[in-house]
Amino acid sequence: MEVEKVIRRNGESATVILDRKMSSALNAITSKVNQNLFPYGLQKPFPGNCLSLMTATGAKGGLVNMTQISSLLGQQELEGKRVPRMVSGKTLPCFPPWDTSSRAGGFISDRFLTGLRPQEYYFHCMAGREGLVDTAVKTSRSGYLQRCLIKSLESLKVSYDHTVRDVDGSIIQFCYGEDGVDVLKTSFLDKFKELADNRKAVLDKLGSHNDKHLLSNPNGYISKLPEKLIDRATEFLKLTRDEKRCRYDINKKELMRLLKVKYLASLVDPGEAVGVIAAQSIGEPSTQMTLNTFHLAGRGEMNVTLGIPRLKELLMSASAKISTPFMKCPLHEDRTRDDAEKMAAKLRRVRVADVVERIEVCTVPFHNNNGRISTHYKLQMKLYPQERYPPQSELTVDECQETLRTVFMDAMDLAISKHLDLLHKINDIHAVKSKDMESQLFDGVDDSESGHTNKEDNGMGDGDGDGDDENEDDLGADAEKRKHQEIDEMEYDDDDDANMDSDSEEDTKDDRAKLGEVLEESEEGHILEDSSNTGKNLEAKQATTLQNEMNESDDEKAQSVKFKKNIKWTIHYESTGLHFEVHYALQGQPHILLAQIAQKTARSIFVKSCNNIDRCTVVKPEKKGTPMVLQTAGVNFEVFWNLVDCLNINEVRSNDIHAMLKTYGVEAARATIIQEVSGVFGAYGIDVNMRHLSMIADFMTFDGGYRPMSRQGMGQFSTSPFGKMTFETATKFIVEAASHGEADTLDCPSASVCLGKPVKMGTGSFGLMQNFCLEQPAM
């Protein structure tokens, strides 16, 4: 019963906290069991157990498959949470309501070797189905993401001066990956021991013929070793002297010469299509991501978007408003846990619903209000005592009462007006329907001749309708194509929803206009056909006048409802101690559910809040000796700047790229992009080379803004009309290019492919000049 009370009162947040605590405890038990069992805790230990041998040697399968067969399946999760409860509080009908046991929450202690019980089998099927659906849906999303990346980055290549340039010659990076080294040649660049032990082989391979050529710096663009590499080599030499790591004693000069030969041989080749390689390096591992969103351990109640949706936010759409913005900042080292909790309590929002213990509504249906009969509502609210308020929030009962007297009462008046407005609209719909029914009944009860003509007219009308349906069926293929295209666009372009909505609104307006014209024409035809019958003519005139009256009455009602929105429905209120009572009088209005309106309003009104900040939590440090971190859901840097005495604001971080760009500049935004993309992959244990990440971040921010890799980004920044046409909406880009007189230099790979020319990448990036001898040599 206590669990039910807490979950019903706090809703989603209580469920999340319970799930997180249960999952962490059960996962610890599962890992402990598996550590004791594998690989030597089985009846047949490791070398003699063929299944264990297969998984341990890497032939097929992994430790997860082995543990599910031999040990236990563990906690089943759906969208990062445990198995959800039904309205009754049960996860399955066979469990008691609000059962807190681990088995009822989806923890499976059975194994495949001895079989599953029916409840466990059902939970496992739920988790398996989610994995299948997620895989099927995810492939199209990740495929489209990779296509957007490749089309945006396809024209980036390394020039002969080791800069990375776009089609129009604009410099994206002055040195590829900031050190000019090819990703495929980085294997032994920082393995100093191996280089020293095999120095003769390295010099024979790289330095025999090309040693002088490499060390003489023929191009003059890259002549020095990176400082970081020199520092690491110097540190290696110190350790070598102390511990004698190498077979040969190697001095600094020889190591630096060896390292320089290796470094200059590892530089990226001019003409390398580094943009496409970076796009593939991001797109390929994104297909391995299984879950869309889940709660990371140590995040508190913060819900952080991860996986494909987060990559789409970062790279494709470059969203200005992201789904789960947060910011975090470490405290000064001398600050304690209590100081952190006090600050977090100051920044947290407190709603009216959090401080109200009980809401009661009494209704007097017939109340004499200044000689007029009205419905009288009494709303009574009891507040929690101050001891029950969130600790360290410094909230008082007087502040709560002040909020109720001012903000809450105004919000209630507005909410009641909106609710009444909605009820009037619903009643108007019923009234119009009933009048239509009456007119149909009156048309049907008529003499035989008029009934006959009505039937003919109705038949004609039905025939027109059938004809329209037939036309729609005839145009089925085109309509189907359009519908599929719209569905595909909606699936792929989440950001274009607003544009599509505006287009659909224009379409509906056009449809309404056409429908009005058709109705007018049909009415005129009806009157002309039956002009011989004066009774019919009079009936048509009466119908039109009735329609006009209805329209006028609707307009009057709309005006009256608009006027009612400004009315104060409150007639009396009392505010004493923990009790708050307010009376409402509604005259000539339909009955309303005041308790529901009050609950909804109480959830939306804040007693205490910071702008744009929803929640604030204290995150424990991952390493000992590091300070605690304050993390908020929502971004407002000024709030943290005001706490400069407690927070180290030089270390403030946020996942909102636009906020970082506006506040701290383009370099901070670039660093945040790298950090966020690597963080998305890091959650799944995927490592992407920093050269690819820095290249994508430089491409998105090289113009000083934050460029999306979508149709909008291509249309705004791409200088190749063919490149834009081969991506999406070819007609639009063709018209724009023709009307603005754009020219294409055919340097873009898409343009070269369109015209059957060799792509200007790799070996196609240079031309050969042949020295023709004009005079023939003498024989």
From TrEMBL:
Residues 463-477, 488-508 have a biased composition (Acidic residues). Its EC number is 2.7.7.6. Pfam families: RNA_pol_Rpb1_4, RNA_pol_Rpb1_5. Residues 442-512 are annotated as: Disordered. It is an enzyme of class 2 (transferase). Keywords: DNA-directed RNA polymerase, Nucleotidyltransferase, Transcription, Transferase, Zinc. InterPro entries: DNA-dir_RNA_pol1_lsu_C, DNA-dir_RpoC_beta_prime, RNA_pol_Rpb1_4, RNA_pol_Rpb1_5. Residues 4-108, 115-719 form the RNA polymerase Rpb1 domain. GO terms for cellular component: RNA polymerase I complex. It comes from the Eukaryota. GO terms for biological process: DNA-templated transcription. One of its GO terms (molecular function) is DNA-directed RNA polymerase activity. Residues 449-458, 478-487 have a biased composition (Basic and acidic residues). Belongs to the RNA polymerase beta' chain family. This is DNA-directed RNA polymerase I subunit RPA1.
